[in-house]
Predict the structure.
Amino acid sequence: MDIDTNLFETTELPAVVKQEQVDTVKAEMRPVLEAARSMVVNDEPSYEKAIKLAGECVRRSKKVETEFSEAREKTHAAWKAVTTLIASFTKPLDEARKLLDGKATKWHREEVERRRQEAEKKRREEEKAREEEKLRMAEQLAQAGDPEAADAVLEEDTYVPPVEVEKPHVEGSTHVPRWTYEVVDLMALVRAVAEGKENASLLCLNTTLVGQMARTQKEAARITGIKFFDAGTVRHA
């Protein structure tokens, strides 16, 4: 095992460290390092000498710490000052980002709900139109003397499945969903439980259960008296 002195020979000096200090420390270290390299421990006197020289290495190491402690403190103080300066700029920017994300998220939630209601209204209108058309055709067939065909038309499914609502999107950002819930009408929930429409355990406000429904069922989650909504935030690229 050899002693690596390459590090202090090639290390770039910080501005707060003087070259004269470094040269002095190097000059004091070299004899100790050379003695360590050349020493052979093969008897008690050489053993004692090695132990004493090892102790000298410890003392000189502490001396180096002392020699450059002022420079290190200055550097650390400068680092702290720069870190504080950076924080003085980034903290208000982060607060502004949170404020904007909150406003954007609120609008996103309301806009998605508006689009969903609009899409649901159109779906119901189309479903109603299909039902009316089905009744009209069945009536015509019945009047034409074909009751079997009229019955077949009446049995046709007129259900119109809901369409996926297109959500607002801004290039360079991603809406991160975080479905949760809010009890908007507790008495309505109580009535629904009393009528057997909802699980009685919901009256205990099982937040774990309701939260799990929000996360797994998302916009499809339905509990009378509770509103499920996406309270997610914005993730920036």
Q: What stands out?
A: The helical segments are 6-10, 19-38, 44-67, 69-143, 147-154, 186-194, 207-217. The chain has seven helices and four strands. Strands lie at 173-176, 179-183, 226-230, 233-236.
